[in-house]
Design a protein that fits this description.
The complex is a heterodimer. By secondary structure, chain A is an alpha/beta fold. Chain A is built from 9 helices and 9 strands. Chain B is of the alpha/beta class. Chain B is 41% helix and 20% strand. In chain B, β11, α9 and β12 form a beta-alpha-beta unit. The chains are: A alpha/beta, B alpha/beta.
């Protein structure tokens, strides 16, 4: 008798990902789908995708989805969740979406302790629009709008949104992970699951920040992109549990 | 219909919304409409199934309404001119996503921060879509407390029927003025027709998507034409206006909202002097009652448009009547409330100048 040990999650549609080779979105989509399957919540989950490459998340995740304007995902999700507290509501957002244009919405949703789960994909640039500087772009990093590299005096420091959200009274679980290796991918999945559970247990606002590669805009190979995250990006954005009051 | 109650306009909108089955409100403080969210915050607190959120911004508020609407709940927000500008992003998205919502704009003077006095400066913004994109919003213009009741009820019905944002366009005077009103029986949300498109979890059905994104231009065009057909149907079915003393009139004042209320007083004054003036009052500003106004030109050759701005609806009046009547304009921008006396003077000057008596 053959035992099936690997299959497409029910919450993942049978579509070919449009993402670039080495992009983290495909892996993260799958992790979200696996978690939804394992928690048995496909029939009561609503997702809110961002503007950006992952706006097409609804082509892959087989759950109800409602699009949000750029940066407003947690506000839209707040409206959904407050009307239907029985649903599990998550947003899927990039660093430009959540840490620049959507900062206010996110900080206040965390402060109110909205029962939402945010999947925050940090690749340090605006991927879909062609690799412009993001709030999370590292100092010295070259982008299409920081041709000589990001300079603090002109461009400011990299924003650490997760740390900002950790001081919000309503956030209960915030962890930063990466999808650069099998080990890190497994850790990321555990974090996503914990974040969903925090919502389902009615504890408060939960967020997983995932360091993810954008090889196309970084102009690096997928392997070198992962290496860059593990060697350089983690110095600015260390992989760690930033806040966890779920067991208090 | 219950007993009469003396209430200010903002409270009337809030109470009526509750009776219409609205169970979600998100907003941000701005004068002169704060009484509306203040009233709803306590009204909703007494309801188990209602949510009131004071949002961190106008942007957040309209996007919360968007999310609430996705679940099928009757949802609304309110603001005043500068805040409505901020909400336009969400209104455009909801038009594109075909989501119902009611947005009350209690207009003030402007542009910019302007002042907090009553004005009709946002006619263009309300009737031309307001945000980016090829779309329209239904715009209802109440001119009395009781009409705030009927039009707020109607706003929620229209929003659901056509799956589109509906704007209640009032002004500081409409929002603050106290008048006796009677309310209809409350509608229980569970008694409303079930919406088949909501996001409530893909339990034993295919997953659903609500979005405005259409990357393929041909699909975007199809979607735009679908919206255009919907707007054409609204134009055909939903125009509403009031004719006041127009049967024998030789000059017609065209005004909406507070301006129409003032114009009624002016018409009454000049009638006492024997001048044959009447009032044509658009109740829906979009769709504009252009056919009805054009029909009026069979008997009326001079139209005086009166607005509390320096001339916005007057363009729709000119488009409606073409060469069939001469269109004159009297306006006061900046938050000035004209007196009936001032408008009566304007009518009288017109009548004598063109020998209409």
């Amino acid at each position: 008798m053959i035992k099936q040990v690997f299959k497409r999650p029910d919450a993942l549609k049978d579509n070919i990902f449009h993402y670039c080779p080495g992009c983290g979105h495909s892996v993260i989509h799958r992790l979200v789908a696996e978690v939804i399957d394992e928690l048995g919540i496909r029939g009561k989950t609503v997702g809110v995708p961002p503007a950006g490459c992952a706006v097409l998340a609804y082509n892959y995740l087989d759950v109800d989805m409602g699009e949000a304007p750029h940066g407003r995902a947690v506000a839209v999700a707040t409206g959904i969740k407050r009307c239907r507290p029985d649903l599990v509501v998550f947003t899927y957002q990039g660093d430009g979406d959540i840490a620049a244009i959507g900062t206010a919405e996110t900080v206040h949703a965390a402060n109110r302790g909205e029962r939402l789960t945010v999947i925050f994909v940090n690749n340090g640039c605006y991927g879909m629009t062609g690799g412009q500087m993001a709030p999370t772009t590292l100092l010295g990093q070259t982008t299409t709008t920081t041709p000589g590299g990001r300079i603090q005096l002109r461009d400011g420091f990299p924003v650490d949104l997760s740390q900002m959200l950790a001081v919000a009274g309503g956030s209960v679980y915030i962890e930063r992970t990466a999808v650069t290796s099998p080990k890190n991918i497994i850790k990321t999945k555990k974090a996503i699951k914990k974040a969903f559970k925090a919502q389902m247990d009615d504890l408060g606002f939960s967020l997983v920040e995932i360091l993810s590669a954008c090889p196309t805009n970084w102009k690096l190979s997928p392997v070198d992109s992962c290496k860059r995250i593990e060697d350089e990006v983690v110095k600015q954005y260390p992989l760690m549990v930033i806040k966890d009051t779920t067991s208090l | 219909m219950g007993r009469k109650r003396l209430m200010r306009g903002s409270h009337v909108i809030a109470e009526t919304a509750t009776l219409a089955g609205c169970r979600f409100y998100a907003g941000y403080p701005i004068t002169p409409q704060n009484e509306l969210p203040e009233y709803l915050s306590s009204r909703f607190a007494k309801l188990e199934d209602a949510t009131f959120i004071q949002a961190e911004s106008e942007l957040a508020a309209i996007n919360m309404v968007m999310g609430a609407s996705m679940t099928g709940v009757r949802a609304m927000t309110s603001s005043s001119s500068p805040g409505i500008s901020l909400k336009q992003e969400g209104i455009s998205y909801m038009a594109g996503m075909e989501l119902p919502a009611v947005v009350a704009n209690i207009m003030r003077g402007g542009p910019g921060l302007g002042n907090i006095a009553p004005s009709q400066q946002d006619y263009f913004q309300a009737t031309r879509g307001g945000g980016h994109g090829d779309y329209r919003t239904i715009v209802l213009a109440p001119h009395s407390g009781q009409e705030l009741v009927t039009l707020t009820m109607k706003a929620f019905d229209l929003a659901d029927t056509y799956r589109t944002p509906v704007i209640i366009l009032g002004d500081g005077l409409m929002g603050q003025m106290m008048e006796p009103v009677t309310f209809p029986e409350p509608i229980e949300p569970s008694a409303l027709p079930k919406k088949e498109w909501t996001l409530d979890g893909a339990m034993e059905r295919d997953s659903r998507l609500i979005c405005s994104l259409r990357l393929d231009p041909f699909k975007m065009e199809q979607h735009n034409w679908k919206l255009a057909r919907k707007y054409a149907a609204i134009c055909e079915r939903e125009t509403e206006h009031e004719s006041y003393l127009l049967d024998d009139a030789v000059v017609a004042v065209v005004a909406f909202g507070t301006a129409a209320r003032i114009a009624k007083g002016a018409v009454n004054r000049v009638r006492k002097e024997g001048l044959k003036a009447g009032l044509f009052r658009p109740i829906t500003l979009w769709p504009f009652p252009e056919n009805e106004l054009r029909g009026l030109t069979r008997s009326v050759k001079h139209i005086l448009v009166f607005e509390m701005n320096f001339g916005q609806m007057v363009e729709d009046v000119r488009l409606s009547v073409g060469e069939k009547a001469t269109v004159h304009f009297h306006g006061r921008p900046g938050g000035i409330i004209s007196t009936p006396h001032e408008i009566a003077d304007a009518i009288t000057r017109l009548v004598y100048r063109y020998g209409l008596c």
